[in-house]
Fold these 2 entries.
Entry 1:
Amino acid sequence: MADLNPIHAWKRLMDQPNDNRVKTIVVALLTAVICAVFVSAATVVLRPIQVANRAAETQIWLEALLSSIPGMSDLLAASDSAALSTVVVNLDTGNAAKEVTPQTFESALQDPSNYTTLTPEQDIAGIGNRPDLAQIYVLRRGDGVELLILPVLGAGYNGPIEAMLAIDGDMRTIAGITITSQSETPGLGARIEEPAWQRDFAGTRFRDDGGDFRFAVARGQAGSEYEVDGITGATRTSNAISRMVRFWLGPHGYGPLLDAVRRENF
């Protein structure tokens, strides 16, 4: 009768020479399975910690951005009705997402069906696929929207640039910006993290009274209310910021949301 004891079978396998093909394949498969189990377990265990760390980091960036906006600290201190809330929006419609909340937002982004592939003509920010959902921050005072804080992303000279863009209640003016992640050249493009450069965004208009998009990072000193100063020696990074802002405040980014707020339908 054949010996079906798995322990005996394992011992017989281990007794085989190390160059035995069956032994090599079995050991390799078992090693792969064990590693996969450990990686999966680590992902499950660490995910809550990662989410908590991201939330804490986001809170720090929000506080820094709000404190950099002229008059915002006084507004928050003086008004009991001013409150910053978190909302998940559908970028196609510009409305609050019906089935996704801030608590389920991260999970929703894992679903490939929640992304839109952009054409080369649309993809001026160089992101390839745009998420259909975005988690934004809304500062309301009374029944009106005082401020929107919008996460934005674009391709820089050396890698992705991530930022938070604050939009004034008129939906035509940038209230502030904070760069949250970048890998640009130190001393050149990396200067986009300097507070002095970021402060230049406050009060910059991105649309004129006719609704035309006018924002740009200048090649030197800003020449109009629609421009911010460029960074000397970092033309590609400056252009990347221009494209990123133009994309996200345009029709394929937050444009529908800005229109909805302007119409008081948000």
Entry 2:
Amino acid sequence: MHDGHDHRFECVRTVPLFAGLSVEDQHRIASAAVTRSYERREQVYRPGDRAGLYIIHRGQVKVYRLTDSGTEQLIRIMSPGDFLGETALLADTTSDHFAVANRPSEVCTIPRDGVAQLLTERPAVALQMLQTVSERLGTAEQMLSALGGQSVGQRLAQQLLHLAEAEASPRFRLPTTKKDLASYLGTTAETLSRRLGAFQAAGIIRLGQDRAVEILDSTRLRQATSD
């Protein structure tokens, strides 16, 4: 098996979506995949594209929409093992958002026809994909609810706790810039910085270099989600 296929197989193997497939099936998917490298700020796809299923192998990809005023509204940040493009595939439509590399990245793409055949032959993969889509919709609904009824401080506290839980550690790094995080939380970078500074001044968190954060008092941070 040549190196190119090995590389694509490693990409496919890391995706939870394909974890239940046999090694033979994973290799079959890998043989149809195309791997491409992206520089920082390079577009992976844009609205109107009809490509396939994108798997993040290395790096980080930002998914966002443009508002009517032309500002970016962050949807999510994708890390190695994550996949995107599934909504357009399931609905047989084109993309309605942008995907851009946040840092030098490698992305494996499985063509639309190959994914459609896979979902037909392996219903378990289709169910797993629907579960992931459902979870993302649930997260989006929670964020919309929070935007309507929570303060910026409450939303930020909730997000910091979520990041700590995802890392299983009180020490972590913000996965994106303050500007993008502010967009995701429905506020401005200046307001976000003030809220982070207030949490630090209160002894709840400690901010470090390169977007490092340490939660010093998780009890008070949880209280801040409802204050």
